[in-house]
# Entry
Amino acid sequence: MNHDLFKGAISKTKGALWEVEGLPKGEYDSQAVQYDKLISNGLYNRIMWGNWPSNYAEFCRQGLKSNTDGVIADIGCGTLGFTYKAYAEHLQKEIYFCDLSGEMLNIGKKRMEKLGADPSNVTFLRSDALNMPFKDNILQTVLSFGILHIFDNPTQLVQECVRILQPQGQLFLTSLCTERKLSAKYLNLLHKKGHVAKPLGALAIRNIVEERGVKIKTFEVKGGMAYVSGIKK
# Structure
């Protein structure tokens, strides 16, 4: 944990996590185990979203490989169900796993510990994705996988990711989108039940990223998922 990266107070919890002081409890805490079982299910992802787990892992690897010697943050990392093995290949780097749910972080932490994660390089930080504790222009790489579609104001998430990135820093982001028919129907159902925000098309997602000062490097749609990477101008 490098305290020089932060603009506010960070403290350690009983569960060996770090957290932003005064942060409310995460709403997903009571559902963390069930959520992990669903989201980590390869068949579910293939049928509902038209993606293989390997798609998520490979995009994560691209983001990690883009980083030379700077600090990495995964915003809304969840339980690391599909990305923990990719992270295990880069344990020499300084990485911050960030999520509002302490229970999800604990699941992800256990996964990384089984693979020998160095506690001096890897930090699990309970924090708010829309109000991150990092200083401006401080990180080399920001990753955010599969959470943009949760927020009613997705621009706010992208803006926060860009704020904490250094100039020329790299952003890697994924979001569910409406390009695949079955995925769009399911996404709209989740929206009606209040689980996700109003669904967006892939081009709308790309535009949000571009409009926040990111030069698009790669843009790809696989099934019902948009993959976007870019460089902060």
